[in-house]
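User: I've been trying to design a sequence by hand for this structure and keep getting stuck. Would you show me what you'd pick, starting by listing the structure so we're on the same page?

Assistant: Good idea, let's start from the same input. This is the structure you sent:
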């Protein structure tokens, strides 16, 4: 008699081996997602024109700057528009060289791209609205170092968690002309004029 290997067709239906269903008790594991690091940003809806923030509105602006209805209620300001982005006007105080000026600025959403030694308008709590020269320390200390061109105002370090908005300065409006810087020749001429005046009164 010849022997051969049995296959499934050789078993009676009642004796066919039954495969047990696979167990689903073991939970399905999914790889953990690595969180992405995003630059701090602010979300301000586009408005129909440039809005002016006056100095006396600073406290109110700190709490309502993200409210579209509040922004629409700010007085309009006629000024240059950029191709894209939100543009706002801010009345500045003694931190700007010309008193009573209005700064025109465009909103910056990616604060990591702030350039060192450039001028920005910083909106922060509780400091308020500041015109400052910025030194970017976000990647190493999560802070911005703010320096004023006014020597009477001390340099300030502000944490990113206290910053509400950042605006890149595009220009300013003023009814006054800036004083031209004194050149060396002009200083010499002033000294000579002073000497002549002293000689005259002797």
């Amino acid at each position: 008699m010849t022997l051969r290997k049995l296959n499934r067709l050789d078993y009676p239906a009642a004796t066919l081996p039954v495969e047990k269903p696979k167990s689903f008790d073991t939970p399905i594991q999914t790889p953990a997602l690595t969180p992405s690091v995003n630059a701090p940003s602010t979300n301000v809806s586009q408005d129909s024109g440039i809005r002016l923030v006056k100095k006396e509105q600073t406290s109110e602006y700190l709490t309502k700057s993200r409210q579209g209805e509040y922004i629409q209620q700010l007085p309009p300001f006629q000024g240059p528009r950029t191709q894209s982005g939100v543009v706002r006007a801010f009345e500045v105080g003694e931190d700007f060289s010309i008193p009573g000026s209005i700064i025109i600025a465009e909103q910056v959403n990616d604060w990591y791209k702030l350039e060192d030694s450039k001028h920005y308008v910083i909106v922060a709590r509780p400091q308020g609205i500041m015109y400052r020269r910025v030194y970017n320390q976000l990647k190493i200390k999560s802070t911005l170092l703010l320096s004023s061109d006014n020597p009477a105002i001390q340099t300030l370090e502000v944490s990113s968690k206290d910053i509400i908005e950042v605006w890149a300065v595009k220009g300013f409006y003023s009814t006054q002309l800036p004083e031209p810087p004194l050149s060396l020749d002009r200083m010499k001429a002033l000294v000579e004029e002073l000497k002549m005046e002293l000689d005259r009164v002797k």
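That's my pick for every position. To get oriented when you compare it with your attempt: Residues 1-6, 26-45 have pLDDT under 50 and may be disordered. Residues 4 and 185 are 116 Å apart (CA to CA).
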